[in-house]
Design brief:
The protein has about 280 residues and is α+β, with helices and mostly antiparallel strands. It contains 7 helices and 8 strands.
């Protein structure tokens, strides 16, 4: 049995997926999936199909498809007279370690760059922080604030001195204080301003795990599995597009109104929802 087949079978069992379910989700026939797990590539019609099935199955199981394809490529290399299995396995292990080392190096570099940028931003902020006047305890804007306070005090004094001038009899004061009516909007219209309602979609898992992709106003904001008991909410301005891998496994609510399931179990469906509904 090949190392590839063992990896595929172990990954499938670890996720609790049967061959029948894998066949339904990947659209690859069960006998071909079984052949991949047993390393029987001759049972698959053609090397091109075998490579395509293997790549899709590895991606479905969450494995590193590039490593799987590399192993498959090496398995398909004609054996030489001096072929040594131990050397082959050591070479494969070294390639995996080299890839892991490169990933670790890139992550370290990215973290270091982010740290330098963060320190630079903090240094710029603190270097430009306004200094406080040590003698008076006032900052640069304090003098302007004091002048505004003095001007306000002078205006209040003038209003109090002019309260008894002719033409300001109590009976001439409007009922609501001379201002604009409280019920009118700034533009003179009596119609209140309402916020745009937009569109809101809630996905509730009810039967089995279901793959879903949600696009809000042209941007994909969720792609993954919805398990039974999960509830995911999405809000947008004009359009929410929902694609379900098993329409009967998810109940949909749009703008507060329950729509229910969009199709049958195992049926792949795409639906668009707008502020007006669907």
């Amino acid at each position: 049995m090949s190392t590839i087949g063992e990896s595929l079978r172990n990954a499938r069992k670890a996720r609790g997926i049967s061959l029948e379910q894998a066949e339904e989700d990947t659209k690859i026939r069960k006998r071909y999936l079984q052949a991949l797990e047993e390393g029987d590539y001759d049972a698959i019609p053609g090397r091109v199909y075998a490579k395509g099935f293997l790549r899709n199955y590895a991606r479905f199981l969450g494995l590193n498809e590039e490593e799987i394809m590399l192993e498959y490529k090496l398995l398909g290399t004609p054996a030489r007279d001096n072929f040594n299995k131990e050397n082959f396995e050591n070479t494969l292990s070294k390639r995996k370690l080299n890839r892991s080392g490169r990933k670790t190096y890139m992550i370290t570099v990215i973290v270091a760059v982010l740290a330098v940028i963060t320190l630079g931003v903090y240094g710029y902020i603190f270097s430009n922080k306004p200094e406080v006047d040590k003698e008076g305890g006032k900052g640069p804007g304090t003098e302007q604030t004091d002048n505004e306070n003095k001007l306000n005090d002078q205006n209040q004094g003038q209003n109090q001195n002019g309260a008894g001038e002719p033409g300001t009899e109590p009976g001439n004061v409007p009922e609501n204080g001379g201002g604009s009516p409280a019920n009118e909007s700034p533009g003179g219209s009596d119609t209140p301003v309402h916020d745009q309602a937009g569109v809101k979609v809630v996905l509730d898992g009810i039967a089995e795990k279901c793959w879903a992709r949600v696009t809000v106003d042209g941007t994909v904001i969720f792609e993954g599995d919805i398990n039974p008991g999960d509830s995911k909410s999405f809000a947008g301005e004009s359009l929410i597009r929902v694609r379900l891998g098993s329409a009967g496994a998810v109940e949909v609510t749009v703008n507060g109104e329950k729509v229910g399931v969009l199709g049958r179990m195992g049926e792949v469906i795409t639906r668009d929802f707008t502020p007006a509904g669907n």
